[in-house]
Design brief:
Strand content: 15-25%
Distance between the termini: 26 Å
Number of strands: 22
Structural class: alpha+beta
Radius of gyration: 38 Å
Shape: extended
Largest sheet: 5 strands, antiparallel
Length: 637
């Protein structure tokens, strides 16, 4: 969509760009830009990590971030340089792990790789693995199926290695008991709370003092910079409302996408199988057929139930029989002959004729019929219509996106030509500050553009801003109010409050320090609190996670040293809002590991195992890095 801007890069600008391009060509050669060479971004013991490998890993990391944060993820908010270095280090560590796993004989089987691939939701249709979707998805990501599966194999092998290291750590009973004892420990905690409001009420200030304090703290009384914007928004949802569908379009789409709305009939079945090799001779085939016909005859005559026939496969010494519940079967899952026989049966409980497959002869029992189910055309019509409108709107969106960029660039002093040409509504925002707002104005890229020098100072249209994959925005400034000092008359009350607070904080700090010194010298803290007319809380046992006590006071209490020789330990701590507390620990009551419930003990063991395993693995990786010859080339990323 920014082709118009590129087309206009002529004259000295174009020559400058060409000059810049000459530099990397001179260093790396033009073949690097045509795929003829390989840029190495790191080496591990002589093994190269290439730029394409890094780019794939970096894209994977961004995809994981996108999946984690959803629509709130904005790559611009991340430290891209830091993230690139982290991904490069991850590739180095992976290469080190690959070397260890190869030398130690770790290996992921084809079955493990297949199971991992089958479990990826992106490769499934209607809850089942879809080979075509798998190939398409992998190909769109710029990889081959073979290359992707090798990456999966490497990941699984590395996982085996990590699990092996993690499984080697077992916390000792002493470690568990010590942690439980600390976790269950209680302390007898008392405190004096000095409240800021009380001291502020005691402070008197003059008009002159307030004026002097205001002058010294003018930076606290500044109005926020703000801007009001004019904008146009190109959105797929709005374009979808313009789309007119031809008669019959919804019905045609329903028939084309029928498998998305209708689940075909499935059947549940059990079977008895007489196994035969694919290359079995005539005598073996005849014997197998005779065996399955004998079972069929006994089942149909009532001499043997089908369940009893299935149990024959579990008889000791029986090697040619297999049996089992096949679960839910749809067409395309099993061989044609088997499915034809299964779907030809009319009623639940029916027994088939012997059926030959690649595995041998089957006797099938129909256990359940799950009829075709899903949405009818009438039920799916509204959803389909919206989907069709959105699909056509997507095409319009991409067509008009380039027009939007071109028009906004060609007429930088106004958005009216843009709105008129594209049929967009010319809209205005409320006043916005740099902290942003709701909806469109919650997007940091929009706010960054709104307060950019180009928009505020030059008065031109912004570049096209991608608010979301389906919304593009162009803005311009209507009104701008810079940050400015507020006069004393407007903020006198706040300035008076600020001065009194500042003085009260000094008083409260002095008083709490005096109380702390006196308590440590042997004075009774309760009596000191009474003399200070402060809030006093008598010592009471509390645990580390006790919700009855202010968490700041609780943390301070468990940071203080143990009382010694019957003498309490004391400390002081600032509380949210400006209050301050002098804290006393009168006694420590040790926790009893034996009294802890089994569930709590298991949680502690699991936590220690996780921490210990992580430490073991980190230590091993440090050792591997120290022993390896590692070269990083971050300037090539």
């Amino acid at each position: 969509m920014l082709q118009a801007i590129r087309d206009r890069a002529t004259g000295w600008i174009a020559y400058g760009i060409v000059g810049l391009l000459v530099i990397p060509f001179a260093f790396w050669g033009i073949d690097q830009y045509q795929g003829g060479g390989t840029v190495v971004v790191a080496q591990v013991d002589g093994s190269d990590i290439t730029l394409p490998e890094f780019q794939t890993a970096f894209q994977d990391q961004q995809a994981r971030m996108q999946a984690l944060f959803g629509g709130q993820f904005d790559p611009a908010m991340l430290n891209q340089e830091r993230m690139r270095l982290d991904v490069l280090q991850q590739l180095v560590d992976q290469r080190l792990i690959d070397e260890v796993t190869r030398s130690e004989g770790y290996r992921a089987s084809d079955g493990q790789v297949a199971a991992a691939v089958y479990a990826v939701p992106a490769f499934q249709s209607n809850g089942r693995f879809d080979p075509e979707r798998y190939r398409d998805t992998v190909t769109r990501q710029g990889s081959s199926v073979e290359g992707f599966e090798e990456r999966v194999r490497a990941d699984l092998t590395a996982q085996q290695f990590r699990e092996g290291v993690a499984g080697s750590f077992v916390p000792t009973q002493a470690d568990v008991d010590l942690l439980l004892s600390l976790q269950e420990q209680q302390r007898a905690v008392g405190f004096v709370r000095l409240t800021l409001d009380r001291y502020m009420d005691q402070i008197e200030v003059s008009e002159e003092q307030v004026a002097d304090w205001y002058e010294a703290n003018r930076e606290q009384f500044v109005s926020n910079e703000r801007v009001r914007l004019q904008y146009v928004l190109l959105a797929v949802d709005a374009l979808a409302e313009e789309v007119e569908l031809p008669d019959g379009a919804v019905e045609a789409a329903y028939q084309e996408r029928r498998d998305q709305y209708i689940r075909e009939e499935t059947r549940e079945a059990s079977n008895v199988l007489v196994r035969l090799d694919l290359d079995a001779d005539e005598d073996a085939v005849a014997a197998g057929l005779a065996r399955i016909e004998d079972i069929q005859e006994k089942v149909l005559s009532g001499e043997l139930s089908f369940d009893a026939a299935m149990e024959l496969a579990s008889v000791e010494g029986e090697t040619e029989l297999e049996a089992g519940d096949l679960g839910e079967v749809s067409r395309g899952m099993l061989g044609l002959a088997f499915e034809d026989a299964l779907f030809a049966m009319d009623s639940v409980g029916s027994i088939s004729e012997p059926v030959r497959s690649d595995f041998g002869f089957h006797l099938i029992r129909l256990d359940q019929i799950n009829p075709e189910r899903g949405k009818t055309l009438d039920e799916a019509a509204a959803e389909l219509e919206q989907a069709l409108r959105t699909e056509q709107a997507d095409n319009l969106f991409y067509e008009r996106a380039e027009d939007l960029a071109n028009l906004a660039f060609e007429a930088p002093g106004s958005l009216e030509p843009v709105a008129d040409a594209l049929g967009l509504e010319l809209q205005e925002s409320d006043w916005l500050e740099r902290t942003g707002g709701d909806g469109l104005w919650a997007n940091p890229r929009v706010i960054e553009a709104a307060f950019s020098p180009e928009v505020l100072e030059d008065g031109v249209n912004s570049p096209v801003i991608e608010v979301s994959p389906s919304e593009l925005l162009v803005i311009r400034s209507l009104e701008h109010e810079p940050a400015a000092s507020l006069p004393l008359g407007q903020v006198r009350e706040a300035a008076t409050e600020g001065l009194k607070r500042e003085r009260a904080l000094k008083v409260i700090a002095e008083r709490s320090a005096a109380l702390l010194d006196q308590a440590r010298s042997g004075a009774e803290l309760a009596e000191l609190a009474s003399a200070e007319e402060a809030q006093w809380s008598s010592p009471a046992p509390v645990g580390r996670s006790d919700s009855s006590m202010d968490p700041t006071i609780l943390r301070e209490a468990f940071r203080l040293p143990r009382p010694e020789d019957g003498t309490a330990s004391f400390g002081s701590v600032d509380l949210p809002g400006g209050d301050r507390a002098v804290v006393m620990v009168a006694a420590v009551i040790e926790g009893s590991p034996e009294a802890v419930e089994d569930e709590t003990r298991e949680q502690v063991i699991s936590m220690l195992r996780r921490q210990g395993s992580a430490a073991e693995f980190d230590g091993l990786m440090r050792a591997l890095r120290e022993d390896a010859d590692i070269k990083l080339f971050p300037d090539r990323l």
